[in-house]
Amino acid sequence: MMVGRTLPNRDRRMVGAWCFADFYGPADIAGQPGMQVPPHPHTGLQTVSWLLDGEVLHRDSLGNEQLVRPGELNLMTAGRGISHSEESPTGHGPVLHGAQLWVALPGEQRDVAPHFEHHGDLPVVSSSDGSATVLMGELAEAVSPARAYTPLMGAEVSITAGRTLKLPLEADFEHAVLAMSDGISVDGRPVRVGDMLYLGRGREQIELGSGGPGRALLLGGVPFEEQIVMWWNFVGRSHDEVVQAREEWEQGRVSGAPDGRFGVVHGYPEPALPAPALPNAELRARGRTRRPS
């Protein structure tokens, strides 16, 4: 299954606190294992799992086991450390289509106790031109119950074929749109499926169009001013911090100690993922963009 990474990219590393966005599918997984991601660690971030089609089973080291389906949100806050696995369940459907997003935690909260949320009834803003399901934050006075640690917003937008959906924006936020179907346009500008269009700050409204039934992710947030180190599955602030997290993951993975920093995921049939080797250079903290905005 091909996966497209839209964030971080060559010029932009973050949109608000959103620091990672992978897009996959629609993939035909009929008669195949589908998604199979063995236990692996995270620090300093929140993972946002969002599906347009299919289902994914989440297990984590806190003992949570949760199936996520389209229109439902799995939100895992790693904080000081957690591990989890993701897999297409037995008897899964023939198609898998979705996005995996990360939110960087601010310095004062990046070592919070890990926790997990599942929200199956998210608020929806709708009109004859389409609808927007609010994953995190607030859009058009619809507020998600998901816990956020910085001012941000994330929504899946569905556009009626041949129509233009207008949505209000928070002018203090920077925004971006990730096209998840063909034929999407933003303020009249075409955006290819799998591409992310950065919109900057200062906008109070957006117009999303589509030739056929269209779907996109709308992301936004107050610009994240802290510099971060993002390596493998860790978000930290320094090289040494990432080195320590890697060492603790490897120690716990080899020993299988359930009381270690990352705990143990039970129920997944394969061994946990080993951490890759660190680069032969110091990891440097970087800002949200390669050049000043």
TrEMBL record:
<dbReference type="InterPro" id="IPR014710">
    <property type="entry name" value="RmlC-like_jellyroll"/>
</dbReference>
<feature type="domain" description="Pirin C-terminal">
    <location>
        <begin position="156"/>
        <end position="254"/>
    </location>
</feature>
<dbReference type="InterPro" id="IPR012093">
    <property type="entry name" value="Pirin"/>
</dbReference>
<dbReference type="InterPro" id="IPR011051">
    <property type="entry name" value="RmlC_Cupin_sf"/>
</dbReference>
<feature type="region of interest" description="Disordered">
    <location>
        <begin position="271"/>
        <end position="293"/>
    </location>
</feature>
<feature type="domain" description="Pirin N-terminal">
    <location>
        <begin position="6"/>
        <end position="103"/>
    </location>
</feature>
<feature type="binding site">
    <location>
        <position position="86"/>
    </location>
    <ligand>
        <name>Fe cation</name>
    </ligand>
</feature>
<feature type="binding site">
    <location>
        <position position="42"/>
    </location>
    <ligand>
        <name>Fe cation</name>
    </ligand>
</feature>
<dbReference type="Pfam" id="PF05726">
    <property type="entry name" value="Pirin_C"/>
</dbReference>
<feature type="binding site">
    <location>
        <position position="40"/>
    </location>
    <ligand>
        <name>Fe cation</name>
    </ligand>
</feature>
<dbReference type="Pfam" id="PF02678">
    <property type="entry name" value="Pirin"/>
</dbReference>
<protein>
    <submittedName>
        <fullName>Pirin family protein</fullName>
    </submittedName>
</protein>
<dbReference type="InterPro" id="IPR008778">
    <property type="entry name" value="Pirin_C_dom"/>
</dbReference>
<feature type="binding site">
    <location>
        <position position="84"/>
    </location>
    <ligand>
        <name>Fe cation</name>
    </ligand>
</feature>
<keyword id="KW-0479">Metal-binding</keyword>
<keyword id="KW-0408">Iron</keyword>
<dbReference type="InterPro" id="IPR003829">
    <property type="entry name" value="Pirin_N_dom"/>
</dbReference>
<dbReference type="GO" id="GO:0046872">
    <property type="term" value="F:metal ion binding"/>
</dbReference>
<comment type="similarity">
    <text>Belongs to the pirin family.</text>
</comment>
